[in-house]
Amino acid sequence: MRPLTEEETQAVFKKLAEYTGASLKNIIAPQEDGDRNVFRLSQNRVYLVRLSMANLATSIARDNLLSLGTCLGKFTKSGKFRIHITALPILAEHARHKLWIRPNGVMPFLYGGNIVKAHVGRYSEDCPEHQGLVVYTMDDVPLGFGVSARSTAESRRLDPTGVVCFRQADCGEYLRDEDTLFQSG
Amino acid sequence: MAPSKTRTIKNKHAGSKSGAGAPGKGGPKRSSTDGVSKSAKSKKPKGPVVSQQVKEKNRALLMKRPKKKTYTAEELGIPTLNMITPVGVEKPKGKKKGKVFVDDKESMTTILSLVQAEKEGHIESKMIKARQMEEIREARRLEAEKKSAEKKAKFEDTKEALRKKRKRKNDGDGGDNLKSISQTGSKAVKASKKKVSFA
């Protein structure tokens, strides 16, 4: 377990900034008790963890430490950062653009499908094309995140079967990717 | 002849002790050392030896060629070749070995603000582009609508004109028709039916 280098920090922030707005700085801001959140890299996975906990975790051998804090994603072998569904609570809290889907669209999305216009309940205004979106149910439960297929204005003119959002991650991955989502052994 | 005189004096001393050992010119020199010799030797025993050694050394040094100084490329100031230095071969001095971690709040905030500014710029430019495209599309749509409306109006006009023309025509020979219909009890078309008569 180690802190991130400058390049790594930049890659992580870039990916997070796709989905979040200016309030992202709150995740590294000091908390009331004087503690703060830091990034830690353990076996290619990046965790957002409280500094006090990270310090305690140094007493655990590298091979024995499976996970700590919130896993944000992992670095690929080519050095890119891939965000995981486990980062959803953080993204949902600071989301820039949002998309609410109707009850009839929840299951198709959770099974890994893209979102079609017929399933869209509400949509953030002024969302450009290929911009990160956080997907919610109509009662504001975050389900996952994706990338907008068209801008808001364009998607208004779209036919009901037209894709509005390309899925990136959904809560169904907790079951589908159970084996690979978390570090094991 | 002075030298001969001195020689004779020395020979006197020498002759008493070592007569046979000193024939000719070389002999007296050695004998003189022999005579006073012991005291002289005890006084400075190493003097001539040291000098001899030094001399030998000097001779050896003279014999040996002086070692040439080897210069490095930097000392000579030769222009460097245009070659690629592989990554990791040249290690910068005074720099920390290995990775440089970013763990303090200030540098993290700096990186975050840089990234966010970049992202904002991207999104802004995307939005502006989208808005411009939307405006262009709207203008095109309006133009197309206007054109189609014009076309429709023209078509309607033509239709109307045709209708009027037809109506006028109908108005012109409408009375006769009515008359003929009233007279014959059938339409004028029927009345004007061609008939074939056989003579």
Explain what this protein looks like in three dimensions.
The complex is a heterodimer of chains A (185) and B (199). Chain A has 185 residues and is α+β, with helices and mostly antiparallel strands. Chain A folds into two domains: 6-87, Roll (Nuclear Transport Factor 2, Chain: A), CATH 3.10.450; 97-175, PUA domain (Archaeosine Trna-guanine Transglycosylase, Chain: A, domain 4). Helix content of chain A is 26%, strand content 28%. Chain A has seven helices and ten strands. Chain A starts with 5 loop residues before the first helix and ends with a helix. Chain B is an all-alpha fold and 199 residues long. Chain B has a domain at 105-169. Chain B is 69% helix and 0% strand. Chain B is rod-shaped. The relative contact order of chain B is 0.02. Mean pLDDT of chain B is 71; it is low at 1-5 and 14-37. The interface between A and B is medium-sized, with 25 and 23 residues. Chain A: InterPro entries: NIP7_N, Nip7_N_euk, PUA, PUA-like_sf, PUA_sf, Ribosomal_synth_fac_NIP7, UPF0113_PUA. Chain A: This is 60S ribosome subunit biogenesis protein NIP7. Chain A: Its main location: nucleus. Chain A: It is found in: Nucleus, Nucleolus. Chain A: One of its GO terms (molecular function) is RNA binding.
Give a brief description:
Chain A is of the alpha+beta class and 185 residues long. Chain A has helices at 6-19, 51-57, 88-93, 103-110, 152-156, 173-176, 178-181; strands at 37-42, 45-50, 70-75, 81-83, 98-101, 115-116, 120-123, 132-137, 142-148, 163-170.
